[in-house]
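User: Modeling request: complex.
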Amino acid sequence: MIKKLSFIFVLSFLVSGCGSLVPWTKLEAKRYTEKRYGFSAEYSEGWYRFNAGNFFAITKDGLLLNKIAVERKKFLDKLEFTKRKFEESMTPQELSEVELDNLKSNPLIMTLNVFKNEPATVAGQDAFLIDYEYLTNEGLKMRGTQLGFIHDQWVYRILFEAPSQYYFGTSEPNFKHFLSSFELIGPEDKEEKASSSKP
Amino acid sequence: MVRQRFSDQKVGFLVLCVFFCGCMSTDLPNAGQAGYKLEDDEGRLFKRSEEFIEVLDESDAIYPNPQLEKYLTDLANSLLTDEIKTSGPKIRVRVLKDPSLNAFSLPNGRIYIHVGLLAVMDNEAQLAALLGHEMTHVIFRHAVKNFRSAINKSSFLASISMPIDIVSGGLGSIFAQLAAISSIYGYSKELEYEADENGFYMTAKKNYDVHEGRRLFEHLKAFIDEEDIKEPFFFSDHPHVVARIKNYDELIAQHPQGPLETKTIDSKEFGSFLDNILRDNTHLCFQGGFFKTAERNIAKFIQRNPDAAVGYYERAQLSLKRIDPPKGEKKRDKAPDYEAALKDYNKALELDHDFPEGYLGKAKVLQKQNKAEEAKSHFQKYLQLKPNAPDRAYIEKYITSGATVDKP
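Assistant: Request completed. Predicted assembly structure:
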């Protein structure tokens, strides 16, 4: 009896767990809702969502070649490279300064050129937009666009990054489409503990 | 019993392996001494250093100040004997835009000093102590000694793994790893002490006050404690800074220098670079979030330049940063202090009426305090004084939206 129960338990675990164990989900050209990250947006046909990380990311050719990532940070959460933190009272410009300090403190970035740092609007929120290019310590030139804004108790960070040569140009229209369709989902969804919603 | 015999055989086998694999000599003459010539493996370390330099020198990491580099390189060379200058590796010093307190040398004579380390120094004698230490690594060929010592240890490890996998690993891959490690991440405890000791003699010989070398270590210790960070690689992960101070004390006790007033401590030249170094390092500290170090930098700058508006401006900027307490300390985070910032912005504007950043900073504080009209006039003054301001788009938005803080 115990053996039978164990078998059923293991089987049910394997069946129920299969979906979340798949590292990549192929996407269709339609709107998806990401409850865990508090937004919905339209993705492009043939892109893939990376399910194994602790962040939202989609890519067409691989995360190193093009990626659109979204992250929500709580105020005063630690950032990756700088010891500075986002604060509730910050204006979009001040958020952009922290974000740039974080980029400049990244030890893998050898040369950083900021083309643009200006106000923007994302999903009706006052935001910042930074356009930049950097050289990695392995000599690869990367181009990126980063946006950020405060909504509710979160700092939203939206990132598009790809190698400057070829990939940035070919993937940028997909990012622009993603960004223009980006919407915040209602507060009733934000408490849900479910991971990224399945398409 | 069988198990014990097997174990004995294994140990015997390993001893034989180690015996036959041979050790590469780490007993090499110093650069400039009779018999000094570049070894093959050392040549490869030089090549690797050159590749590293090529990447670093073309990056944003270099602090762009050729006059400072010349001063540092000339000072370093003035500590060397003619023999070393003629036949040893050519010494060149460059500065890196990094607020942490580090310095390192590459085997081919290139020395990099972080601007953060220069900012804590008080005088040329401290700088000479640092350069003496780093140059000893080069002159005493610590890189190749370290490399060979690691290779010898690797041979021992390779001997152990041989019966399992004879071809696993390879010198090429070990070399690539060790070349980087030995140059940048510090040396063994013994080699670091040797560098301290010889650096001490080099500075004493040139009549620099050796007590200043000890003070440099004290600055470094303060930085480690204040910023709650791991010890920088100037110390490597071997001799603890406290042990290094003790070692330095022993050297001072063994070699009394005579009357202090006859010793060199400072030169006007070092001081001429220090103000810019302090300002630039303050910005780097802000960027990395090293606020305690920024505070020390600014205090030092104001002490040296009490009538410079920029010192008070930087102090105001610091007042607006949230400062976390050191790890383990239960004090509350220090929240932005708008009143203190306002006081310093006013002081800066009193000293310099046409200081655009002073108006900008003050406007932002007034904006936070919901004093919209006042904030607006200060934003306008900023744009008037700096029409091509890179943040013009943001400022114009503040002005048109009534200079209030946007609430989500």
